[in-house]
């Protein structure tokens, strides 16, 4: 199975470059997620003493190399420095350079901050796994489409191989995230009896906002619908986990379902950073490929062109 998978990857790389706009967009979403966390949180909230960590930020062990532990300036200044780095990463400029800084900043937040969520950890892992992809990406902007050469050199073949391995490792990580989420729920009583969504949606802290409860409450107060949503979440996450090995048609069908899941989490639970991160990694995992994105963009350009310059109808010649 794996041999056939890598043969398909290599065959695809001979038709189109592995340094795609779609992966670039995924990197942008992940960078924006971390950037949003830093923008919305004062440095005193992210970096503060806690039990077992009397000094903030955490700068012991490997964390000594953290971006937030270099020098002795005010933490707010370091926070804005990290925001600036992430803004450049999100812009898509020089992936080869900014990929390294992206790893440093996302890892530093996880290593030195007291309050981090699963999205921050996923971001740090994905930035690291994609590092060979960014280091071999010679584009000025990751929005630029690169055509595969007709006669690839040995250097291109090596760079292409490294990029494909990094991309595959990142996708395998995403598959494991969904597999863990799906299997883990099977050991929780509320998920198995179909009532978990009721408790999460009506939770006083993490539940649905008041403006959404008019839609949510009829669903969770009905035994059939609440069970379908609870079990449906487990089933969807399991299919997303195995999507790595499914046919492209299945992936196209699962992609909007996964997006709906994470957008739903954003609106119901307010987990903006986590949801943005997961939308980014889902795009990298089973989202539209380069040629598909370019085809969609091409159709949009045709529609816009027709609206700006509608065809002039001439009467038939008598």
TrEMBL record:
It is found in: Endomembrane system. Keywords: Membrane, Transmembrane, Transmembrane helix. Residues 15-290 form the HTTM-like domain. SMART domains: HTTM. The keyword Translocase does not apply. It is a multi-pass membrane protein. InterPro entries: HTTM-like, Sporulation_SdpB, Sporulation_signal_mat. The chain crosses the membrane at residues 100-116, 156-179, 191-212, 224-246, 258-286. It comes from the Bacteria. Its main location: membrane. This is HTTM-like domain-containing protein. It comes from Pyxidicoccus fallax. The lineage of its organism: Bacteria, Pseudomonadati, Myxococcota, Myxococcia, Myxococcales.
